Amino acid sequence: MLIERVKVVIDTNIIISAFISPFGASAQIFELFLQGYIINYTSEEIIQELERVIYRQKFIGCIETHDKQFMIDNFRSLSLVIVPIAKEKVIKDDSDDDKIVNCALTAGAAIITGDKHLLDLKSFSNVSILSPREFLERLK
């Protein structure tokens, strides 16, 4: 039986949460990503955000350096890196989140995020915006 893989844009906060809480919903999503059950679309801008955020002071001691590198290397190599053509300005309170929406619009993919600004939208155009729990529930 052939299972269709789900197209998503995984927000950087999900990747980081997966390593902070290795038994939570975000970790389950990262594992599905690593195993190839979901197709993650990303952009250079999103990868750069992950590289920048993961080395912030607040993550020193709670995520090992080798785990940070594993996270970045796998996020980059296993994701489909695209150049978003959408240029929507959607998130008024945090325009930095627009890169996630525009990547998802271009890819025709759902967004998995823990970001309140994005979650409050619930959807935009044809893009579903889901928390990790909501995403896992929909997979069942």
In short:
The protein has helices at 12-20, 25-34, 44-54, 65-78, 98-107, 116-119, 132-139; strands at residues 6-10, 38-42, 80-81, 110-112, 123-124, 127-130.
Portion of residues within helices: 40-55%
- What do we call the CATH homologous superfamily? 5'-nuclease
Number of domains: 1
Let me know the average pLDDT: 92
Task: Return Rg in Å.
Answer: 14 Å
Structural commentary:
The chain has 140 residues and is an alpha/beta fold. It has a single domain (6-139), classed as 5'-nuclease (Rossmann fold, 3-Layer(aba) Sandwich), CATH 3.40.50.1010. The protein has helices at residues 12-20, 25-34, 44-54, 65-78, 98-107, 116-119, 132-139; strands spanning 6-10, 38-42, 80-81, 110-112, 123-124, 127-130. Helix 1 (12-20) runs parallel beside helix 3 (44-54) and helix 3 (44-54) runs antiparallel to helix 4 (65-78). 34% of the residues are buried.
